[in-house]
Amino acid sequence: MRKQEWIAALVCVATVSGCSEIIKTVRPKRTGSFALPDVKGMTVSEAKTALAMDGVTGTIDVRDNICGTEDPTPVGHVCYQSPGAGQMVYGDLPVQLGVAVPKDHGGKGKDAWILMPDVRGKSVKEARAILGKAGMKDLVVTQDTMCQDGPDVVCETSPPTGTHAYLHVQNQLYVGEPKAKPPQDPKPEKKPDKDKQPDKDKKPDDASKSIF
Fold it and tell me: Which of 115, 107, 111, 114 is nearest to 64 (CA)?
């Protein structure tokens, strides 16, 4: 270990909180380019310390990042870095770190999101309850001719199932249109019975008799 790194490490041990900031001020500025270390798998604090120890003095931007579903990186640890490990950089170059988050939600405040639950086939009331419990409040129900199960059954959502759905924007539930009532056959008009002859022997009513 070089002397300047050893001095920086002693300062870090003596002041656990804010270690990376102190290292930035204690370690002499590195001249020329150097290979960026691999900090994937470390906690954010460990990664910042490693980068500072290696001569990074630029801004370190930490963001939530979804690693692939097969990525074993624990939640809260670095799963992405840019520039990548081994790339030649200068000390004042900004570095971005992506931190593993739970696979089904992330973000904070207005950027909070979830993976859209599957509410297809649920009633509108059931879908609202499921999504409301997940934190999604602003839902619009839209009728779509592609939906065949009537106006109270969800056939699709926007965003689609399993994709990012931000909690503080308007999301949509698609339902079918009301089923039209089948047309009724008009009642047939009554036609006079040709075979029926008027009764010649029928006497007129008393009301029709002449009083004269």
Answer: 107
